Amino acid sequence: MASAMELTSEIVAQEELVKALRARKVSKEEIDSATQKLSLLKTSYKAATGEDYKADCSPENPAPGNERGLDATEAGEDFVDPWMVQTSSAKGVDYDKLIVRFGSSKIDQELINRIERAIGQKPHRFLRRGIFFSHRDMNQVLDAYENKKPFYLYTGRGPSSEAMHLGHLIPFIFTKWLQDVFNVPLVIQMTDDEKYLWKDLTLDQAYGYAVENAKDIIACGFDIKKTFIFSDLEYMGSSSDFYRNVVKIQKHVTFNQVKGIFGFTDSDSIGKISFPAIQAAPSFSNSFPQIFRDRADIQCLIPCAIDQDPYFRMTRDVAPRIGYPKPALLHSTFFPALQGAQTKMSASDPNSSIFLTDSAKQIKNKVNKHAFSGGRDTVEEHRQFGGNCDVDVSFMYLTFFLEDDDRLEQIRKDYTSGALLTGDLKKILIEVLQPLVAEHQARRQEVTDEVVKEFMSPRKLFYDFQ
Amino acid sequence: MASAMELTSEIVAQEELVKALRARKVSKEEIDSATQKLSLLKTSYKAATGEDYKADCSPENPAPGNERGLDATEAGEDFVDPWMVQTSSAKGVDYDKLIVRFGSSKIDQELINRIERAIGQKPHRFLRRGIFFSHRDMNQVLDAYENKKPFYLYTGRGPSSEAMHLGHLIPFIFTKWLQDVFNVPLVIQMTDDEKYLWKDLTLDQAYGYAVENAKDIIACGFDIKKTFIFSDLEYMGSSSDFYRNVVKIQKHVTFNQVKGIFGFTDSDSIGKISFPAIQAAPSFSNSFPQIFRDRADIQCLIPCAIDQDPYFRMTRDVAPRIGYPKPALLHSTFFPALQGAQTKMSASDPNSSIFLTDSAKQIKNKVNKHAFSGGRDTVEEHRQFGGNCDVDVSFMYLTFFLEDDDRLEQIRKDYTSGALLTGDLKKILIEVLQPLVAEHQARRQEVTDEVVKEFMSPRKLFYDFQ
């Protein structure tokens, strides 16, 4: 084990690196990866010394002011916005604090029970286990549903590469379930324009990723009669109504506001600055006249990861000023990287995630080699003191993907007690993930270009409240 | 005649009013109108005292810093941007100074001769008389033309109301001539989205004005086989290629840049901030695949009033960075208001302009009653000292609309010598304008909804270089 002094100098060097990367404005992935390493070093420091690492606050090394991310994390606060998620805790982001900070509401047992009553079915495991943990106005959606009033679902994805990983599926798995139990139409936005604006991509690359990613999304099992998937680059050019809503939103949001919400600066491109209106527009039903005709009053429900909330805080602020209903929201936690819950998974580090293209063997190797363990250093210690499910990534993954509540609880008990060893736990996870990914691959294989084209064509959808 | 003291207190009061209007951010028209009155008071002051009015520069009344417009004007500099044109000179803006400030090139006799040689026809009176006075890269366009390489024309209009006046026709009259003599395709952008963003209009109103204004533009005689007129609100929703270019431009322009060019502030809407990309996009031929297929390299020539130049300075700055040719430009002077050349005409003051809907009688009354005269106070004085064509609005209008050079020169001589009285000069103008407007009205009458629809449909155009 490294000494505290060695670790300190490594931490200081890594902090310098993170700062330098930020100053050079390199990609989010690079910064994430460096920040992640910094967090792991700090975790090691604590493991070695029993104390939290504290940065030297000498005048030569002042707090970095308004710089995004690092200062909040160093002050013990998590940092979450659409481009950066940071926490120094191996348990991941403190979601209760986030609810308070964002001003959303906790999905409590009462709300889960109400959903169960409304749909007459067992709530999804993501609800039962607090993976979708926060909401805005979900009771209003249920009021509408119980009064036979229509609503629709809206979610999306930023297609930054062809490679999607397990974490990317979370909102789609949940949205598919919502579509099934509520029997409502769904629109899925592929923000290829956003990825073009933020990344070093050509327009054709971004659009190509949108189409490729759409295949993985379709493989989640969405109902083609009730689902419209669209690329911004394509749909903007095929619907005046969508552009009209974008302009409407853009008229009612100032640079001051997006600066406050997203941290944009004067050196950001005018494309980035105006983009939030494009992610906001699908929240309003008259952006889709082919689906909702001229109705502008149909309530929208947005399932998404909590880091997307800033877009919809802005949307909810604008909505009443342009005569539209505020969208409701269901927020999920982040899917942890194999290396630990300090950050989201990174599409650019193949070992940080299980990709949807991974083979059974790759899955086995990645879990065995990279999944951060909450177990003890030796089998003897583990049997004696037990493992820590709160930081164990294999256990976290099982909470996402193992449907059987009783079995999950038994695993939790056995691992905590030490009866279940890390190797055994990883084996269970591997046996859950291998068929899950293989079945996804099989379904994706069946998604032909014609099917994608159909999903992505502006058209009438079929649903109850027409 | 008012005393210098009376005028001073009127000027001071008017200055306070202008400042107050600016602080309240009222409409451009209101500020223009108040500023115009201020300029006229200063002109009267000079007439009464023989000296320029000088503001008190006491510490209580410091220069207003970065505020748009007034400071430049008070310092004897004209102020010109897409939303505000100000000068304190009755002769109008000093265009030679503007060429230096904007970094464009003067349209000199050599260039006019070259155009004449290229087209084998007499240059348009707007060229002969310096109404189109400035250019960027026009020689490059002529090089292309002489080498049988294609180019196309792009101009536009912000449809802020149904009422168009004579001044609005200037770029279209000239563009029609360019289309005829060069036999090239033309795209005309109606920035209804811009007007929605800047004015207190609904989207439907702005689009409605775009269609109404298109009728007046079509009545200028454009060739339906070679002309595409489009509303942004409509065309954005029917062309992915247009949106792709908009996003491309938006990626390569920062808020800092548009702040510098257009004077935007943090309180401006993100719609205004990102709009310049939408006015820039038609400068690139692949925004119109229905016309130019996939060619991105066809040179664009933009005839416009000089106040639109900031948009195209930005466009020319971006073009090479996204792999497109820079658009060339031909800049016109402003068409003076009836009350004098201090500002552009205002669509909101019916007496400042001859509207395209005015009857023969209204034209007669407006010219006789409101056209600022460079004549003397009495017939005797006029006969003795002669009139001043440099500030006489009737004479200025004749330079725009009287085709016969010799007759115009004779009028100038006679008015300057005093042989021609103000009443006679106004009579000549009335006799030029009445048939011009009546013929426009007759042509507009013939523009059916079907014709407008055809002009505004994205479609193939017919021209030589296909």
From TrEMBL, chains A, B:
List, for all copies, the residue spans of the domain called WHEP-TRS: 3-59
Provide a Gene Ontology MF annotation, just one. Answer: protein domain specific binding
Gene3D superfamilies named among the record's database cross-references? HUPs (3.40.50.620), S15/NS1, RNA-binding (1.10.287.10), Tyrosyl-Transfer RNA Synthetase (1.10.240.10)
Q: Name one GO cellular component term.
A: cytosol
Determine if NADP is one of this entry's keywords.
no
What top-tier enzyme class does this entry carry? ligase
Q: Which residues form a coiled coil?
A: none
Per the UniProt record, which EC number(s) apply here? 6.1.1.2
Please indicate if the UniProt record lists Nucleotide-binding as a keyword.
yes
Q: What's the domain of life for this entry? A: Eukaryota
Task: State which residue ranges cross the membrane.
Answer: none
Q: Which family does it belong to?
A: Belongs to the class-I aminoacyl-tRNA synthetase family.
Query: Could you tell me what this protein is called?
Result: Tryptophan--tRNA ligase, cytoplasmic
* Organism, scientific name: Equus asinus
